[in-house]
């Protein structure tokens, strides 16, 4: 499935698009061992939701809420439209989401807390990009 033009523009508006891999990142399932460290944590987005009481948006990577083995990105002081703008990304195949910050733990769940989505990046799935293999001249 290819990203539509509208989705591509949405990615550009709500986060930084990463065309390569997360170079010095750790996987979401390694984050619990890095509590207290600054890190870039990456994983497949399983769900995103907005809590109106706390005004926070929660991104669950690797496993969905309420699984205690998930990794959560918390964006404080956010608006409901932030969660809505990422809903498409919870569809299979889920893109890889990366967040950079200090890894902490809340009730046994590893997380990164952010003040904005500026430190969240989306790595598109390879099948979402254009296939230009026939357009590249050989030999290789």
Would you count the extended β strands for me? Answer: 8
> How many individual domains?
1
Shape: globular
Largest sheet: 5 strands, mixed, barrel
3D architecture notes:
By secondary structure, this protein is mainly beta. The protein is about 10% helix and about 35% strand. The protein is built from two helices and eight strands; from the N terminus they run αβββββαβββ. Strands 3-4-5-7-6 form a five-stranded mixed barrel. Strand 6 (about 95-105) and strand 7 (about 110-115) form a beta hairpin. This is DUF3558 domain-containing protein.
Layout of helices and strands, plus pairs?
Layout: H1 5-14, E1 16-17, E2 26-27, E3 38-51, E4 56-61, E5 71-75, H2 80-86, E6 96-106, E7 109-114, E8 120-123
Parallel strand pairs: 1-8, 2-3, 5-7
Antiparallel strand pairs: 3-4, 3-6, 4-5, 6-7, 6-8
Feature tags:
140 residues; mainly beta; OB fold (Dihydrolipoamide Acetyltransferase, E2P); 5-stranded mixed β-barrel; 2 helices; 8 strands; 36% strand; disordered N terminus; disordered C terminus; DUF3558 domain-containing protein
What is this structure, in a nutshell?
This protein is mainly beta.
């Amino acid at each position: 499935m290819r990203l539509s033009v509208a989705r591509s523009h949405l990615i550009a508006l709500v986060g930084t698009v990463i065309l390569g891999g997360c170079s010095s990142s750790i996987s979401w399932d390694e984050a619990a061992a890095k509590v207290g460290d600054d890190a870039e944590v990456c994983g497949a987005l399983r769900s995103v939701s907005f809590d109106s009481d706390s005004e926070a948006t929660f991104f669950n990577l690797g496993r969905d809420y309420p699984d205690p083995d998930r990794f959560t990105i918390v964006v404080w002081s956010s608006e409901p439209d932030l969660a809505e703008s990422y809903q498409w990304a919870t569809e299979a195949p889920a893109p890889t989401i990366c967040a950079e910050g200090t890894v902490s733990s809340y009730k046994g769940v590893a997380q990164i807390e952010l003040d904005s989505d500026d430190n969240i990046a989306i790595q598109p799935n390879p099948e979402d990009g254009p296939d230009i293999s026939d357009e590249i001249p050989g030999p290789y």
